[in-house]
């Protein structure tokens, strides 16, 4: 199987490029916070061949949003639920917009 070009990985939001330490530094949190998000099933990091957690940019954006909510005093379980509901709402709005755009004018 051919390996993706390196440049493709830089553009891929889902590529698990960041170790737990680097990811925690990027969002201003601790590795324990990222592990808690995994335990709450908000984000599930991929594992390297050695079994180490790896995070994507997409996952880091979600983790950063969770950190914002927790920093505002929201319990982590509630923050995770809020983010899941926000994501579901965004998807529902996108689908609704697509369906409205596909109706014939008349």
From TrEMBL:
Top-level taxonomic group: Bacteria
Signal peptide: none
GO MF term list: DNA binding
Single Gene Ontology BP annotation: regulation of DNA-templated transcription
All residue ranges annotated as the HTH merR-type domain in the record: 17-85
Pfam families the UniProt entry points to: MerR_1
Protein name (record): MerR HTH family regulatory protein
């Amino acid at each position: 199987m051919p390996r993706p070009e390196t440049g493709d990985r830089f553009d891929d939001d889902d590529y698990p490029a960041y170790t737990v330490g680097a990811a925690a530094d990027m969002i201003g949190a601790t590795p324990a916070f990222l592990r808690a998000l995994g335990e709450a099933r908000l984000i599930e990091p991929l594992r390297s061949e050695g079994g180490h957690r790896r995070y994507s940019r997409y996952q880091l954006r979600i983790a950063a949003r969770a950190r914002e909510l927790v920093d505002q005093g929201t319990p982590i379980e509630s923050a995770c639920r809020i983010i899941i509901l926000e994501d579901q709402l965004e998807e529902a709005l996108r689908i609704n917009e697509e369906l409205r755009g596909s109706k014939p004018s008349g």
